[in-house]
Amino acid sequence: MTQNEPMSRPEPGRRTTPSGVARRWGDRMEEGHEPFDLATAFAAFAIFTGFAGDFWRNLLTWWGFGVIVVLVFVAAVILFVRRRPPLRFSHLPAPLVLFVAWCTISVAWSAYRPETLLGSAAQLITAFVGLTIAVTVSKVRVLRALSIAMRAIVGLSLVFELIVALFFPKGVLPLYMLLPGALDSLSGIPGATIDTVPGGFKWSQGHLFSNAAIQGIVGNRNLLAMVALLCIIAVAVQLGAGQLKRWQGIAWLATAVVTLALCRSMTAFAAFGIVAFAYLLVRIARPLPNSLRWIMYGIVGTLMVIGVSFVVLFNNELFALINRSSDMSGRGDIWWAVSQIARDHWVVGLGWVSYWAPWVEPFSDLQVVDGITYLQAHNAYIDAWMQVGVIGAGLLVALMLSTLVRSWWLAIDRPQYGADDGFRIPPTAVLAFLVTVALAVQSLTESRLLIEGNWLLMCYFAIYSKLRIQDLPALPRRTLPDHTGPIMTIGQRPLLPATLELPVPEHPNAAPGKPGGRAPQAPSGG
Q1: Where in the sequence is the domain holding 435, given as residue range(s)?
Q2: Model pLDDT for residues 232-250, shown as the tens digit of each residue
Q3: What is the tally of structural domains in the chain?
Q4: 159 assigned to some structural domain
Q5: pLDDT digits (tens, 9 = 90+) for 85-101
Q6: How would you class 257 by CB atoms within 10 Å of its CB: exposed for 0-12, middle for 13-18, buried for 19 or more?
Q7: 482: how many CB neighbours lie within 10 A of its CB?
């Protein structure tokens, strides 16, 4: 199109761009050519700390971990204030805001008010870090930060397990347990040593060469397996986006797969299969028109109902095939015990606590197995039901479902920048959906969705999928009739290069700054 050539009038609500300029910019941003900066480093360290919290606690005690959390929070506040994102309260996902608010006000009826205040503070800090990342760090940089954090945990875990297996065959204890009298007090065993305490007290049991599950720097096989799965997702997306050299990506994929296998976590194995199936559905749905997508949804929903029914009916036989107990390694007993408490306070719950506080009732002896006091319900929704009642659990379910739906739309719908509709779906578009699927699967057998790294990513993807303003392919937009679901504008100025403008034809009924109104101006900073 020449300068004097008239611009064709697009459909109302569609933005047009100068010939090829925005496409080249969008492709460059999506393919990972953004420089590494302090915001990326902050996001990587925050995600690392969220998923490797036990590493910091075992190394530096809870007090040292608390100092690191405060530093991350202060850094988030500084980054948020300096970037000054044009954010409105109404832009935040309603289920997220309502769930956090409900947890906070539960202090009014909590059976343990100091612990509720402490748990609410931890929840709010983590949510604010997720918000800061969502509105100040681009999607491409978040992908890089997630990959760096997950690769760091996987790599350090394998090195750690190798050192323990070679030089400490009896395993190693968290460093704070080496303090005089600490091990006796925590284990309840007079004169306790590393030989006499249950294996659950050990940071690592040195199983790398003993045909048993490894624990890594996070001290837990299930947590390390989830990290390995997220590493696989992040590195695979990076390979597709051109952020990693081919040999580097393949090497890290192999390392993460080996780590996942060494963890021997059935939850992670199931999540891996479901994530792979979810990616297959994305690839199937992308070229389909809206009518065929709804048919696909019906088929997939039917298959899911049949599959769940089959597992419920033949759970004993299925678990026997994989050499696992039908109550999922004692989780059935824990769910039953927690449910009995939840039924007595089923509407509003006992009060939010986040981490179970082992010094207050009923958490001090709610579930003790082999001398280990379990401090979670091993199901995020049952846990939420006990703490904040059916209202809080319902809000948590709404948060998960809404994030899954929004991230699904982002994964299958082509970005709409111009009337030619010539933009491809970027490789990074699937990240939010695949990670959210992984979090959803793990939330059925672990309560980690409520705390630390899982809660951080849940908040980030919930907010990001609502806003979608951090880079060009995530501009606020309205979906055309042949796409799935409405994706509404939020009235924000898009982050664009200062030299790039998006002329929008006038529409008589459009308000200024809305699709069909005047063209939004590129921000001067941020």
Answers
A1: 36-169+206-415+424-471
A2: 999 999 998 888 889 999 9
A3: 1
A4: yes
A5: 877 888 899 999 999 99
A6: middle
A7: 10
